[in-house]
UniProtKB/TrEMBL annotation:
It is found in: Cytoplasm; Nucleus, Nucleolus. Signal peptide: none annotated. Keywords: Cytoplasm, Exosome, Nucleus, Ribonucleoprotein, Ribosomal protein, RNA-binding, rRNA processing. This is Exosome complex component RRP45. GO terms for molecular function: mRNA 3'-UTR AU-rich region binding. Its main location: cytoplasm. Gene3D superfamilies: GHMP Kinase, N-terminal domain. GO terms for cellular component: cytoplasmic exosome (RNase complex); nuclear exosome (RNase complex); nucleolus; ribosome. One of its GO terms (biological process) is TRAMP-dependent tRNA surveillance pathway. It holds the Pfam family RNase_PH.
Length: 293
């Protein structure tokens, strides 16, 4: 399996010593994110997130299918991740690496298992037909902190997505095209986001937010905290590495809550801007004589 070039000993020592002096190579504070951009595509359910040099594209789709036998009243919701060689030489097609597996599991726990999407609203005919919502996550470039960027892209894509409207008459299900009826948004309950901390030092006493790829290669541990703007924690993933003091973890959680509120405000703002762009003047424009009709 191909591997990406590891940083030299001088690079490792330089990064660690700089962090111990509260300095980062890009001039950020230790608890500061890189510039974050969120854009939506012309099609509903496409979100493009850029976090520094890390870029994630998420696309949500839906199709009518048969529900699971053990959950006849629920729809189906899945998240699929793809890390291709375009992202990094360390990734191969159809050969999931440990990074891809961990990313997929973190997204599953954060978004799907936390009940962010109301799967009961996806049921069309109990035990017979339901909506199957799928989000495909594609990493276009990797410069560290894939988890936070991917989670933001998934949440934004799902909130932006619109599924076709349906009706049931005489036991017959009708799915309308966008030209016949306006597509309807998903039933969304809350917006969880991931905040990943990296720990440096012999005992992991130095906590750094939004580590770059170079910083990730020299860290001694990491912790991903998933929560929403109301302070409800969905998960805390501490996957090995140096143990972290409980008090330090609480401090990281408090900072994470502040960042999650900023993420939530950003998504709300971008959704409002996209809705305004698609509205083309709004309802009053339709009442005017001089319109596109």
């Amino acid at each position: 399996m191909p591997r990406e070039a590891e940083p030299s000993l001088n690079e490792k020592q330089f990064v660690i010593q700089a962090l111990q002096e509260n300095l980062r190579l890009d001039g950020r504070e230790l608890d500061q994110y890189r510039p974050l951009e969120l854009t939506f595509g012309d099609q509903y359910g496409v979100a493009d997130v850029t976090l520094g040099n890390t870029r994630i594209l998420a696309k949500a789709t839906a199709e009518v299918t048969v529900p699971y036998a053990d959950r006849p009243l629920d729809g189906i919701f899945t998240i699929a991740t793809e890390l291709s060689p375009m992202t990094s030489p360390a990734f191969e097609v159809n050969r999931p690496t440990e990074t891809e597996v961990l990313l997929s599991r973190l997204l599953e726990k954060t978004v799907r298992r936390s009940g962010a999407l109301d799967t009961e609203s996806l049921c069309l005919v109990a035990g017979q037909k339901c909506w199957s919502v799928r989000v495909d996550v594609h990493a276009l470039s990797h410069d560290g902190n894939l988890t936070d960027a991917a989670c933001l892209a998934v949440v934004a894509a799902l909130r932006h997505f619109r599924k076709p409207d349906t009706s049931m008459e005489g036991g017959r299900l009708t799915v309308y095209t966008p030209a016949e009826r306006e597509p309807v948004p998903l039933s969304w309950l809350h917006s969880p986001f991931c905040v990943t901390w990296s720990f440096f030092g012999d005992e992991g006493e130095l906590a750094v937010l939004d580590a770059t790829w170079l910083e990730e290669q020299v860290r001694v541990g990491s912790c991903t905290i998933s929560l929403n703007k109301h302070g409800e924690i969905c998960q805390i993933a501490k996957l090995g590495g140096t143990p972290v003091d409980a008090v330090a973890l609480l401090q990281c959680t408090n900072v994470a809550l502040t960042k999650v509120k900023e993420f939530s405000d950003l998504v709300d703002q971008k959704l409002a801007e996209d809705l305004k762009r698609r509205d083309k003047g709004g309802f009053m424009a339709e009442l005017r004589a001089e319109n596109d009709r």
